[in-house]
């Protein structure tokens, strides 16, 4: 069976102030064309179809057109909700859509109920594990703890239990939306940390032939059988070195796989430039970036006059301007920026506690309280997204 694995469309998202709607439409054109040209048997969409729980009408229309085109091709599509989607909204009409070959899996309770497709070698069971917010689904799975590993393990136990009832020749595919250890993140994924832990081990998915992951935006193989397709477009400048692709997976009669990357169209290249303003404006080596979307980090010790206007005279598609002036090691601002660089919310909060106490940091109990507060805020945000 030939499977096309994609995820993280984030329909409705912009890149800084630049609309990506036309570029997203081109990506979906490429997807449908690939389904036709490469004789794909099934499409797997591993979550984050939309960029937010209540997407703009233009994004909904784009999604609707994509579903109609996939249904018209006659190739089944299995799709799950991600942490950016409203599972309830995305799942509306799932029963009717299933009759047209569009199988939406947005209910955590249905993790152990597969979409069963057939090829010349027998059955392939597709299990959809939508994004599982631990605090919201812990009771559904009777998990011991409200953590990502606990709820995913419980969901996969249901998958393996169902597989055990099927003929030995049944091959299996799992769609999941999660942060799996070994994957490389970017700056454009929403933080899903709970209890100080976001990642789950790849071994959670042992026992299935292929795991089609969503959430991380870089296309990558965590293991031979556990892969991220990545997003079809770059959604932050941290993705400047990404190659945006889909995975074309051939699953043979014995469950062995062969994988090929299929490129998405690139609407405009990205460039991250750094240096003093005069250097960026005069350096002939930077001519190749003049039509790119640019993030410019200026290191001038004193802020130049009208830096954005002057940059756009040479780089008309400059979208982001960062001021990072060169400072001596004795400069207190340089020291503060260095301390914050690369630190998460928990670490910054603990640093603040140590600062106001004259160097006495948080103890284990206080760190637990801080972590619980951040988790509570994160879960509340998730609940609001779901209920909007």
- Give me the side-by-side strand order of the main sheet: 6-5-4-1-15-16
The unreliable regions are: none
Shape summary: globular
Which second-level CATH architecture of the largest domain applies?
Answer: 4-Layer Sandwich
CATH fold-level assignment of the largest domain: Purple Acid Phosphatase, chain A, domain 2
Q: How would you characterize the largest beta sheet?
A: 6 strands, mixed
Span from first to last CA? 39 Å
Question: Care to describe what's here?
Answer:
The protein is an alpha/beta fold and 388 residues long. The protein folds into three domains: 2-263, Metallo-dependent phosphatases (Purple Acid Phosphatase, chain A, domain 2, 4-Layer Sandwich); 270-323; 332-387, no CATH class. The chain contains eleven helices and 19 strands. It has helices at residues 21-37, 57-73, 87-90, 94-99, 134-141, 148-164, 277-282, 307-314, 332-340, 345-356, 364-387; strands at residues 2-6, 14-15, 18-19, 42-46, 77-80, 102-105, 115-119, 122-129, 171-177, 179-180, 199-200, 210-214, 220-221, 226-228, 245-251, 257-263, 270-275, 293-298, 318-323. The strands form five sheets. Strands 6-5-4-1-15-16 form a six-stranded mixed sheet. It has a six-stranded mixed sheet with strand order 7-8-9-12-14-13, covered by helices on one side. The chain has a three-stranded parallel sheet with strand order 17-18-19. A hairpin with a 2-residue loop joins strand 7 (115-119) and strand 8 (122-129). Helix 1 runs parallel beside helix 2 (57-73). The longest helix is centred in the C-terminal third of the chain and has 24 residues, at 364-387. The protein is globular and about 70 Å long. The protein starts with a strand and ends with a helix. The mean pLDDT is 90.
